[in-house]
Amino acid sequence: MNDSISIVGRPSRWKKGQSGNPGGRPKSRLVSEALRTQLAALKPGDPKGRTYAELIASNLIEIASESDGSEAVHAAGLIADRIEGRVKQQVELTGLAAELHNKSDSELQFYLEYQRWPTEQELVELKQQALLKQPVESKQPI
What we know:
The protein is mainly α and 142 residues long. The chain has helices spanning 30-40, 52-66, 70-84, 95-101, 105-114, 120-133.
């Protein structure tokens, strides 16, 4: 078994709050850098002295505004994605994933410890325990 993979409920080699990837995802890729360089370059022979990026943007706007049908819609969508940002997709959970998503941390911990879901009475007790563990707000004198 691979030691770097932890099993749910068992300690891992990472401390709580410690990232397994502190540097994060690399900020740029080789092809992305090459494209950025090319897009920033002036197009040889362009009478207005525009960059490739300016020409592409101009062509995209022309397609969106002067074409009919799916080409115009696609071009307009690309422009909106770049300007407004992509719309976040909603994911609907069903079956076991939905059931697990709706469980509380206490219920999930109970399942890990006892390999079964808590009864109604145990749920009441878990909720009472959770309320007792919550910090009490201290009122400061004015």
